[in-house]
Amino acid sequence: MSDLTIGLLYGAATLFAMFSGMPIAFALGSVAVTFMYFFMPASSLDTVTQNVYEEMASITLLSIPLFILKGAAIGKSPAGRDLYAAIHAWLHKVPGGLGVANVVACALFAAMAGSSPATCSAIGSAGIPEMRKRGYSPGFAAGIIAAGGTLGILLPPSITMILYAVAAEQSLGRLFLAGIGPGILLVGLFTAYAVYRARKEYAAAKVIYHGGGAKSAYLDDTVFTLRQKVDMLPRVLPFVILLTGVMIALYGGYATPSETAGLGALLALVLIAVVYRLWRPKDLAPILASSIRESTMLLMIIGMSLLYSYVMSYLHISQSAAQWVVGMHLSKWALLGLILLLVIVLGFFLPPVSIILMTAPVILPPLREAGFDLVWFGIVMTIVMEMGLIHPPVGLNLFVIKSIAPDISLRDVIWGVMPFVALMLVAVLLLCIFPQIAVGLPDAFMASR
Amino acid sequence: MDRADGSGSLVGWAQRAVDKLNKLLLALSILAMVLTACVLTYAVVTRYFLKTPTDWQDDASVFMLIGVSFCCAAYVQSTRGHIGIEVLAAILPGWANRLRLLAVDLVSFLFCAFFSWKSWTLFYEALMEGQTTNSTFAPPLWIPYSMMAFGMSLLTLQLLLQVFAWLLQMKGGNRSGTGASA
């Protein structure tokens, strides 16, 4: 049987196992072990557990549970609400300032927590009711938060980037730095749209009011005194200092990524204990238990995905598939388009973790051969996977929004996020035209690749 | 949790025992995770402020987090926390869905049973041959292997109990179904 035929069988078996509803980790593991039994030497089955252990026992990969703990500590405390309130107070005079405040709060919180659903939940639970109280349409309010939340996997420290760094054998430091420029670009695009849309809705509300209709809350003035604004800072500043401190520890060369994760997790626990008095076991238990649940689930997927990739490589499936893609002689940009389309489709069903680990052995060699910078591609791929987080049918953030604002219909949420999906596509285009948006920062700050 | 009609039976008793063990392991894992954060912070502090680098923090952290990941796998499974693609659930009729879920748990059980068996073999070899990690600290490898083997065995048991719970539920459903038609 040819390598490509085995590869097709492997792909079909994977699809079957996954769509049967098996947990992703067990589905990948079962398919890998089955193919080892039929197509690899019998002795290879004896090394299954050793392979999984050796792949998992990476201090970089194992920083993931600690980044999750840091995110959960901040995400489940009232820090998100306070951050949002402070930014709203300071930005309320900016046209469309409430929407801008929500986008900026999402970006800052995403950078602190590193998780898209946690960002949606923390900022959205305060931001959506406030936006709706101030007259914003339900879909627009939901769209801002769902899209803002996706910044969690782009801005450092991002768990998705840690996995990409391992799968693509790229420098994690470079990837983290490369995420900052596109993250700021997306914040810029989202805020510009928020201002445009808010002004449009404001103008429509004004026309209705002057025409004798009801007065929308859009037309009410909000005033914050300087004292009110300053009073909001003490609860927010410690977390901004944490964010800055973690970045300095990482890029100042004081700590490795895993040490930064440990330091960040511990400091986050200390901060919520000091600022919010969340130190009793009953306060901390839900935070710690949810971190363990998420980390265990993710690490099991990672371990089995790595076994799955090992089998693909041993059976020459990834090499044959990569050669097949190269053999199509597509132009550089057609190749990129085809691969991004594959990532988008996979993003309909799979979490970013699985997409990266399962596809990396197949898609990265042709991209490398076509001359793409794999750090740059990691950023583009992350933005495309972000779209999967807010795109039907299984966009995770859509369902987070639905759970925190159940009175907004799923239809409104979906239509509300669509302009943001378009803005993400614009960001991908801009990154293709101006790759320095991503690689400029790492090129400037890090000497060699 | 899928324990349906099994709560008064041997399956119910075994599930309660596994739940208690899962809770204990969750508590130990929470401690291990916080301890790992402390260890890594300690390594940074001693290196930069006390100028005494440590060589054990990476091994200790990896061992603890490997322990957390495997020892809590059964707890996560007991809450159905290992995510999967559930598109078929909305399409299939009730009876087919129950059969699908039973098959899914059964195949997962078989895979985890195989993995547990191989993990114990790996643990035994590491213990007998005195295998260590490649680092300068070189702690014995049987420590993480034992946690992997124990965690996967508990996960296998959890899956087996869930398979039995499905069977009991289906049997209960069939019996009540027969009763209704009679």
Helix content of chain A: over 70%
* Assembly classification: heterodimer
Shape, principal axes of CA atoms of chain A: globular
Q: Poorly predicted ranges of chain A (pLDDT <50, ≥5 residues)?
A: none
> Tell me, what's the shape of chain B?
elongated
> In terms of per-residue confidence, which ranges of chain B show pLDDT below 50 for 5 or more consecutive residues?
176-182
**What count of helical segments of chain A does DSSP give?**
21
Distance between the termini of chain B: 31 Å
Q: Write the H/E string of chain B, N to C.
A: HHHHHH
Order of helices and strands of chain A: HHHHHHHHHHHHHHHHHHHHH
Greatest contact pair? A-B, 58 and 54 residues
User: Count the strands of chain A?
Assistant: 0
Major sheet attributes of chain A:
none
Structure explained in plain terms:
The complex is a heterodimer of chains A (449) and B (182). In chain A, helix 10 packs parallel to helix 18 (374-390) and helix 12 (233-251) runs antiparallel to helix 13. The model of chain A has no long low-confidence stretch (mean pLDDT 87). Helices cover 77% and strands 0% of the residues of chain A. The two termini of chain A are 40 Å apart. Chain A is mainly alpha-helical. Chain B has 182 residues and is mainly alpha-helical. Chain B has one domain (10-171). Chain B contains six helices and no strands. Chain B is elongated and about 65 Å long. Residues 176-182 of chain B have low confidence and may be disordered. At the A-B interface, helix 1, helix 2, helix 3, helix 4 and helix 13 of A face helix 1, helix 2, helix 3, helix 4 and helix 5 of B.
